[in-house]
Write a structure and sequence with these properties.
The complex is a heterodimer of chains A (113) and B (113). In chain A, 0% of the residues lie in helices and 51% in strands. Chain A contains no helices and eleven strands. In chain A, strands 2, 4, 5, 6, 9, 10 and 11 form a seven-stranded mixed beta sheet that branches. In chain A, a hairpin with an 8-residue loop joins strand 9 and strand 10. By secondary structure, chain B is mostly beta strands. In chain B, strands 2, 5, 6, 10, 11 and 12 form a six-stranded mixed beta sheet that branches. In chain B, strands 3-9-8-7 form a four-stranded antiparallel beta sheet, with no helix packed on it. Chain B starts with a strand and ends with a strand. The chains are: A mainly beta (113), B mainly beta (113).
Chain lengths: 113, 113
């Protein structure tokens, strides 16, 4: 079955450390997204990419970076500049342009040690 | 600018009772509207969407929603709650291009046996 795989499911970060969250899809979707989910705040868009080698900042991009070297992969790096990284991170994909996600991965929960 | 407001961050219903989750939108142009469901520690799944066709939209798992322009609402309903409906539900709004897409803050549904 096609889908989105996020790894790891749980991740712990030390102060001052960069960490990378993996997102792989085999749906052949052009667009991919990264969201941050905090209790009571819904989902907020971090970055999105509509095509390989191109990506745009979302609403809360500061402290994060992404790359899109392959259609099926869209890794997210949480840098040390992100002062409050503890959250649930969701990757999504879509066949359509714009910002509407269609399929989601099961998320990565990031915590600070 | 577009936004959605979900009234009630927590809703509890008895098994077999009507489920009503409220969503009001704010949009200067006719919007597209969506409902997603999220089960614990999982990603989101699209329940249904309104894209300016029929105002009553039927989705998966027996859910439906009605677009009411006069009330700027898109409430989600299900006639009879099942224990498996316990989850977080998100309303979302988009413009026709999909270039503006925003989630509400979510409503947690508890089903009481």
């Amino acid at each position: 079955d096609g889908g989105i795989t996020q790894s790891p499911k749980y991740l712990f970060r030390k102060e001052g450390q960069n960490v990378t969250l993996s997102c792989e899809q085999n749906l052949n979707h052009d667009a991919m997204y990264w969201y941050r989910q905090d209790p009571g705040q819904g989902l907020r868009l971090i970055y999105y990419s509509q095509i390989v080698n191109d990506f745009q900042k979302g609403d809360i991009a500061e402290g994060y970076s992404v790359s899109r070297e392959k259609k099926e992969s869209f890794p997210l790096t949480v840098t040390s500049a992100q002062k409050n990284p503890t959250a649930f991170y969701l990757c999504a994909s879509s066949t359509s342009g714009g910002r509407q996600p269609q399929h989601f991965g099961d998320g990565t929960r990031l915590s600070i040690l | 600018a577009q936004s959605v407001t979900q009234l009630g961050s927590h809703v509890s219903v008895s098994e077999g009772a009507l489920v009503l989750l409220r969503c009001n939108y704010s949009s200067s142009v006719p919007p597209y509207l969506f409902w997603y469901v999220q089960y614990p520690n999982q990603g989101l799944q699209l329940l249904l969407k309104y894209t300016s066709a029929a105002t009553l939209v039927k989705g998966i798992n027996g859910f439906e929603a009605e677009f009411k322009k006069s009330e700027t609402s898109f409430h989600l309903t299900k006639p009879s709650a099942h224990m498996s409906d316990a989850a977080e539900y998100f309303c979302a709004v988009s413009d026709a291009t999909g270039n503006q897409f925003y989630f509400g803050t979510g409503t947690s549904l508890t089903v009481i046996p």
